[in-house]
Design brief:
30 helices, six-stranded parallel beta sheet, Rossmann fold, single chain, alpha/beta, about 45% helix
Length: about 675
């Protein structure tokens, strides 16, 4: 059983009585083993598996923990345990409760918000402060939702010292329209899932868990904390380490773990002190730095690994790029396999330099946080084509598809969708093939100068301009073709979408559907746009050989997507699975290039922490925007404790491109590497 392999500290935590339990699990102290043992202990104690909830920060982590418990109890029991990320669990439970929701990625909803912002005019306001763009406004609103449950958006902005007071009424109205539009189409983003789940828990007592286990508790934000409270479990098992709280930029609230013992008067606090990962010298270095931060809970790490290991090494270079070249050369001649080597960086610009020099050395690498398979334009386009058929109310998928049509921007594609939606009585498929007669296909906006709303008058265009293009009569009779801004190229693209949808609704098998997508005129038009864009030479001409290769790569991704579809019984399940899990899937092999945030929870035999110059690490710019030296110090602690056997710390004195002279990071002084 899992309990038999634990040390004394882990065993005490895993078998503690039910109640409010906090386990301080420092880097490499076996927190996963402790959580697995706790679940096993609960099952052995007679707790019904369906009354156990495990919340993690990746679905992969949850799956690995449940898999380990399954070795002892069998999958027929462990499959009943509710487990996954806050978002994945909320999505499943909401669907179980009968909620009709369509989960959308932030990048999709930013486009939707843009269609609202583009209809506003800010020029009637006399201000030296420029209004926020749609993408930044969305990110700001998301941070607001993660950071408070008591303030309105503009109250939160005002409390943060925002200079945008003249736009507050407009921002509030924009988000009121945005939220109403999302509700109309059933769209939710990741924050909405948690907010809906919290509301459902307070209004529905049918969902009840005997114990809620939370991994990476130090990274919970205020919204997630309020959801934990809403579950109302009498027993909490929270595992985390305040020294590894590094998500303040995303709303993580270190006070949640810091105030645990104060919020729960009968709380038990356990500390796991035995480190099984790093050598003595690596751990000592990390501890010397992190001890400069305030101690929320006392702990003293002990090293359990035996043997002889080299101490951490400091690498100093005269110039920035020569640092990257030298480190790439060291990696090339390393005794460790490349998959067990990581280069960890604070800033993305550092990764660009090291990636380039690794490739110069002929070394493959994978960069976590880069463009994943699911973020490539062609894969997103394929999934959007699936989505408009699976969910004919999916405005965002429709708008994304029309990004590839000449002469159609996001505003016009939104209006075309609205028109089809209206004449289709809430279904664009019906709008294409069984349109109803309505008085006004394209609605006009009311005037409100204070909120930036002005009439957008439409003059109805003539359909006769499209009669020579071979369109069938059913399509030509569609009222949306009368939109005055619809061009010849736009009408041809719209016709390709029409033909794609015409033959799509009867296809229920995901693999067959992806085949249909790949053979469609509309996807081939999209592939043509992408391949052309990717093969333009510096002089503006198109490299035909490169274009053909680009097309081949696009369709290879299509066939890979078809393989991924094999395990799903319906198109809807296939789409939902990819939306929830795509952020955790990636391609690539070789040396690991990782931001510190992406390195969290991982370990490698050899680690390089690069660009340790004051200003870059700690990142002084981010500190001025609300960060802190304590947070930067926690980032350094996380980076260095990824190393098992060998740790290199490096910095450069000069950047010849930017003509900047650097001095070493203060963390190197705190670590005792520089005097």
């Amino acid at each position: 059983m899992p309990l038999q392999k634990l040390n004394v500290e882990q065993h005490a935590a895993a078998t503690t009585q039910r109640g409010h339990n906090l386990i301080i699990a420092s880097a490499g102290t076996g927190k996963t083993s402790t959580i697995v043992a706790r679940i096993a202990y609960l099952l052995e104690s007679g707790v019904v598996p369906s009354r156990i909830l495990l919340l993690t920060f990746t679905n992969k982590a949850a799956a690995e923990m449940i898999e380990r418990v399954s070795l002892f109890f069998g999958k027929e029991i462990t499959s009943l345990i509710e487990s996954g990320t806050f978002h994945a669990v909320s999505y499943r439970l909401l669907r179980k409760l009968g909620y009709k929701i369509v989960l959308k990625q932030p990048k999709d909803l930013k486009v939707l918000l843009k269609t609202i912002v583009e209809h506003r005019r800010f020029d009637h306001i006399d201000s030296s402060v420029r209004p926020y763009g749609a993408a930044y406004l969305y990110d700001l609103f998301s941070l607001y939702q993660n950071s408070t449950i008591t303030l309105s958006f503009t109250q939160w902005l005002e409390e943060g010292g925002s200079e945008h007071g003249v736009y507050f009424d407009m921002y509030e109205d924009i988000f009121e329209e945005f939220q109403a539009l999302k509700k109309e189409f059933g769209y939710v983003d990741f924050n909405d899932l948690l907010i809906l789940m919290r509301e459902a828990l307070y209004s529905n007592k049918a969902l009840f868990f005997d114990e809620v286990l939370i991994d990476e508790y130090q990274d919970t934000n205020t919204l997630q904390g309020s959801l934990i409270d809403a579950f109302g479990a009498s027993s909490l098992f929270c595992v985390g380490d305040f020294d590894q709280s590094i998500y303040a930029f995303n709303g993580a609230n270190i006070d949640i773990i810091g105030s645990f013992a104060k919020r729960y008067s009968e709380a038990n606090v356990f500390t796991l002190n035995k480190n099984y990962r790093s050598s003595q010298s690596i751990l000592s270095l990390a501890n010397r730095v992190i001890e400069k931060n305030p101690r929320l809970y006392q702990k003293q790490l002990e090293v359990t690994r035996e043997g002889s290991f080299e101490p951490p090494k400091l690498l100093i270079y005269d110039e920035l790029f020569s640092q990257y070249q030298a480190i790439s050369s060291l990696i090339k001649h390393s005794i460790y396999p490349h998959h067990d080597i990581a280069v960890i960086f604070r800033n993305n610009s550092s990764a660009d330099g090291i990636e380039a020099t690794l490739r110069e050395q002929g070394l493959t690498c994978k960069r976590k946080g880069g463009t994943s398979f699911f973020d490539t334009a062609e894969v997103k386009a394929m999934l959007d084509l699936v989505s408009v058929v699976v969910n004919p109310k999916d405005m965002m998928a429709f708008i994304h598809i029309f990004e590839y049509a000449k002469g159609i921007g996001s505003s016009l594609s939104r209006e075309l969708f609205d028109g089809l939606f209206k004449i289709g009585e809430g279904n664009i498929y019906q709008g294409f093939f069984h349109p109803k007669e309505v008085d006004e296909v394209f609605k006009k906006r009311p005037k409100n100068h204070q909120l930036g709303l002005f009439d957008d008058i439409h003059d109805i265009g003539s359909v006769s301009r499209f009669r020579d293009f071979g369109f069938d009569e059913t399509f030509l009779s569609n009222p949306v073709l009368k939109h005055p801004k619809l061009t010849t190229d736009g009408s041809k693209f719209l016709h390709q979408v029409y033909k794609f949808m015409k033959h799509s609704t009867r296809i229920k098998n995901p693999q067959t559907f992806i085949n249909h997508v790949l053979s469609s005129e509309v996807f081939n038009a999209i592939a043509e746009v992408l391949a052309t864009k990717r093969s333009i030479k510096k002089d503006g001409s198109v490299d035909d050989v490169a274009k053909q290769e680009a097309r081949s790569r696009i369709f290879r991704k299509g066939h890979l997507l078809k393989e991924l579809a094999q395990g799903y019984a319906s198109n809807e399940r296939f789409l939902n699975a990819l939306t929830l899990g795509s952020n955790e899937m990636s391609e690539g092999e070789g040396v690991n290039l990782l931001s510190i945030h992406a390195s969290k929870g991982l370990e490698f035999k050899e680690v390089y922490v690069i660009d340790l110059m004051d200003g870059r690490f700690p990142n002084r710019k981010l500190m001025q925007k609300g960060g802190s030296l304590e947070e930067e110090r926690r980032l350094f602690y996380v980076a260095t404790t990824r190393a098992k056997d060998m740790l290199y710390l490096s910095y450069a004195k000069y950047d010849k491109l930017k003509k900047i002279t650097y001095t070493h990071s203060p963390f190197l002084v705190e670590a005792g590497m520089v005097h």
